[in-house]
Write a structure and sequence with these properties.
The complex is a heterodimer. Chain A is mainly alpha-helical. Chain A has helices at 3-23, 27-52, 56-85. Chain A is built from three helices and no strands. Chain A is elongated. Chain B has helices spanning 2-29, 33-53, 57-82, 98-118, 139-149, 152-173, 191-203, 208-226.
């Protein structure tokens, strides 16, 4: 397959993730949409790494995976801390920073 | 032969891409968070297949292990722990402009990338093999060499990041100390009932106490016999 097909696939998944992040209000599902966007970017990195015959893209994908894992750990801990205070909170209810 | 490999490659791409896109749509559209997480697993496996088809075998393996094995399990664990598996799908939106704006943004990103990918030149510009050539047969050693030479500082910072993430998760999931917790909202402590049970047990009112003593006697008897 040509590289264009992989780029288009990555773009489609990234768009679906971005739209989901905007229209969903459950914090857990919003996190899943962030994971979708990160995976779309990973597809693009691997595709460019293949077509440039360079290992740098794969190393960057490795770092993206590590950062995604750390982000999920901290994010889910924050969601748990929020949900412990108020059951079933949606992202619209979190207005504690509003002055 | 070449035609056959091209056909297989195309078939793999179409199937894996369809799984990816359908899983991504499932993450956005489905209303149960557990179903969202399982759709995410489908997408992650599809991405792993895409990695394999591009000869990034090591990344495909850690994609399955880290994402599908750890991250989604963590999602499911939090869903189970919080009990938020009630359906709350694409319900009513409070601000009416959010949905059209999201649609415009999604369509805009897709159209931009489609124009860039399909209309422009299909050649990739840039330095080829600046960091090291890909070698699908020695995938891990190639990535490892790049990781520990050129990207060694990033690697060390990553370890610091993971440590910070672990400490932050522990700090966030602990119970707040002191006055941060509202004592009136807490349910009454069940300590009194436990104390009563414990007293009964000490007084020997349970039926099991006699049986325990008899067992102890027989044990002593066998020990004496053995001696």
């Amino acid at each position: 397959m040509s590289q264009t097909a992989y780029l288009v696939l990555g773009a489609v998944i990234f768009s679906i993730g971005a739209v989901g992040l905007l229209i969903r209000r459950n914090p857990l599902v919003m996190f899943m949409c962030v994971e979708l966007m990160l995976n779309a970017v990973n597809i693009t990195f691997v595709s460019f790494s293949k077509s440039l015959n360079d290992v740098g893209g794969q190393v960057v994908v490795f770092f993206v995976m590590v950062v995604a894992a750390a982000e999920v750990v901290v994010g889910l801990a924050i969601i748990m801390a929020i949900m412990r205070r108020r059951q079933g909170a949606s992202a619209d209810d979190l207005t504690m920073l509003r002055g | 032969m070449l035609l056959a490999t091209t056909l297989v490659e195309r078939g793999v791409f179409i199937i894996a891409g369809a799984i990816c896109v359908l899983g991504a749509l499932g993450v956005v559209v489905l209303s149960n968070p557990v179903h969202n997480a399982l759709s995410l697993v489908a997408t992650l496996f599809g991405v792993a297949v895409i990695f394999v088809s591009q000869q990034a075998y090591f990344l495909a393996v850690i994609q399955v292990i880290v994402y599908a094995g750890a991250i989604v399990v963590l999602f499911l664990f939090v869903i189970m722990l919080l009990g938020v598996d009630k359906s709350e799908g694409l319900g009513r939106e409070r601000r009416i402009w959010v949905r059209p704006a999201a649609g415009v943004i999604g369509a805009g990103i897709t159209v931009l990338v489609l124009v860039g990918a399909l209309v422009g030149t299909s050649e990739v510009t840039g330095t080829h093999s600046s960091l090291g050539k890909l070698d699908p047969n020695h995938d891990i050693s190639t990535i490892g060499k790049a990781l520990f030479t050129r990207y060694v500082y990033a690697f060390e910072i990553t370890s610091v990041l993971l440590t910070i993430a672990v400490i932050g998760a522990v700090m966030l999931s602990r119970k707040p100390i002191g006055g941060a917790i509202d004592l009136e909202e807490l349910p009454p402590a069940p300590a009194d009932e436990w104390d009563d049970d414990f007293d009964e047990f000490e007084d020997g009112e349970f039926d099991d106490s006699g049986r325990d003593d008899s067992n102890r006697d027989t044990d002593d008897a066998t020990e004496v016999a053995g001696a």
